[in-house]
Amino acid sequence: MVQLLGNDTTGLAGAAPAAPAAPEPSVAGPAFAARGLTLSYGGTAVLADIDLDVPAGAVTALVGPTGCGKTTFLRSLNRMNDRVPGFRLSGSLELFGEDLYDGTSDPLVVRRRVGMLFQRPNPFPLSIRENVVAGVKAHRLARRSELSAIAEARLRQVGLWEAVSDRLGSSPFRLSGGQQQLLCLARALAVSPAVLLLDEPTSSLDPVSTAAVEAMLTSLVPDITVVIVTHNLAQARRIADHTAFFHQGRLAEHGPTARLFDDPSEEATRHSLSGHFG
Amino acid sequence: MTTVPVHGATVSARAHATRSEARRLVRRRLVDRVWWSLCAAALLGIVVPVAWVLAGVVGKGVSGWRWSVLTTATQGTGGGLANAVAGTLVIVAGTLVIAGSVGVAGGVYLAEVCREGRGGLLRGASEVLAGVPSIVLGYVGYIALVVHFHWGFSLLSALLVLSAMVVPYIVKTTEVALRNVPTAYRDGSEALGMPRTYALRRVVLRPAVPGIVTGLILAMAIAIGETAPLLYTANWSNGYPSTHLLHAPVAYLTYPIWTFYNQPQASAHRLSAEAALLLVALVVVLIGLSRLVVARTQRHTEGHRGAR
Ligand SMILES: Nc1ncnc2c1ncn2[C@@H]1O[C@H](COP(=O)(O)OP(=O)(O)O)[C@@H](O)[C@H]1O
Ligand SMILES: [Mg+2]
């Protein structure tokens, strides 16, 4: 009887799975730990032998010249490269102490815990409200009756509520680029991720929108770990606690942002961070 | 004194520049006008035949139009066309169900499921099928279904032959429509951890709907307008379509247009003109319906910004 009841509850949990994972273990460990990580396409290594700890609860910036593999590295953190033809990964990569690539983790679950924002805002062809709750519905994280409240809460969190509250049912493509990016941010936050990955999220935005997105990002820590790729060094300086500098297929240097910019130990870092790259 | 020639040279150079600029402007205007004339001519090349056909069909059909055509069945070469209208609707609906599900599934498979570079067999077979003349398909259907399977002239053999005929169009338009969906939607749904089939249904399919619907309309229009394969499989009947899928011939609108036109009786000619009018009206209604479907699914897409 008890056994049966137990089974039954499991069945229910299966139907409405993934109760938003409790906040990630606040153990002192890093959010991501890469060891001897090599990423390649069709046998050609893009990044080789990366050892990097991405600290939890902080903003980490990934910088480096165009084509040095920042995007490739970032997309490996939520297994977005899995289906890219020719992509191969060796070494190990852990998310909060769990290996991402040893065959035990489910990419869909990983991506719920590790959200992502792209260079160009990419709202779905759904209404504004449906955009915010798209992930919540996909993972069945809430009941139907709760969706409106979730949409409002997330839109408020990203500061978009005033602008869109009277047109939640209409198309997101009439919003400005900056507003669309904030909408995508609300969509990513709605599934309560532990980590947020951003690939040059402000490179297509005007300065005012950029400031709005940056303000949002810094308000997310320490609840959420933020990893941002940027080619804007000033941006890295403004918002990143830590910076990792990639150069010629290697991780040239990483550390607290201030130290990296003011007192780089590598010649390549000094050269690049004082000037500009591609 | 020395400044004068210099000044003169400057003036003449400037005048020269202005003149060549003016000439360039004239040429640009000319090219512009020729270009627009060609576009207008092309437009006329489409509009004139359509208007001509419509005027002919509507003119012949409307003069002496009898509403009883819609309520009575054909008797010999007289009577009405209600049986043919009903038959055509049943045939089109049946083809839409069979060819629509097979074709859309095939297109989704080619665009989404099979890996890059695979699916060559399905794509090749589909293209060959598209190239087979409809009368050949009709004949094969007659030999295989009507005669060999002993289905007789029947709705099912007509549906299968018409479906085989239009499936390639639906496969192609579905595949192309899905491939044209921006990768940003796929990236976005993948990054949210959506399962692929879920993302396909909820996000990726929606912007592809206009393309898919266009393929379905094309398929229906072809099915409505076909005669040859139906002669072999549905034959003709003076009665209304029944629930029997086998051993029951079916009436359809293209039959009287062709067959009755070659008969001597005035009543037969009248039916021929009326069938043509009904066929055109049916196609117009179908296109109207599909526009509505497209407008509804495209409310939130990138291309649609406000009034259109
Ligand atoms: N899907 C792919 N297939 C093959 N090579 C790729 C692919 N994506 C990126 N690359 C290559 O990997 C290198 C790193 O690209 P990327 O990670 O996008 O650099 P970044 O984001 O730093 O500009 C580039 O040389 C690029 O051409
Ligand atoms: Mg990049």
Note down, in words, how this protein is organized.
The complex is a heterodimer of chains A (278) and B (308). Chain A is an alpha/beta fold and 278 residues long. Chain A has a domain at 55-66 and 103-273: 3-Layer(aba) Sandwich (Rossmann fold). Chain A has helices spanning 2-15, 70-76, 107-113, 128-138, 147-157, 161-164, 177-189, 207-220, 233-239, 257-262, 267-274; strands at residues 32-41, 44-54, 59-63, 87-95, 98-99, 114-117, 195-199, 225-229, 242-247, 250-256. In chain A, a hairpin with a 2-residue loop joins β1 (32-41) and β2 (44-54). Chain A starts with a helix and ends with a helix. Residues 1-24 of chain A have low confidence and may be disordered. With 308 residues, chain B is mostly helical. Chain B has 2 domains: 3-62, no CATH class; 67-302, Orthogonal Bundle (MetI-like fold), CATH 1.10.3720. Chain B has a two-stranded antiparallel ribbon with strand order 1-2. In chain B, β1 (74-75) and β2 form a beta hairpin. The longest helix of chain B is centred in the N-terminal third of the chain and has 60 residues, at 3-62. The N and C termini of chain B lie far apart (68 Å). The chains are: A alpha/beta (278), B mainly alpha (308). Chains A and B meet through α3, α4 and α7 of A and α6 and α7 of B. The site of magnesium ion (MG) has 3 residues of chain A, from α2.
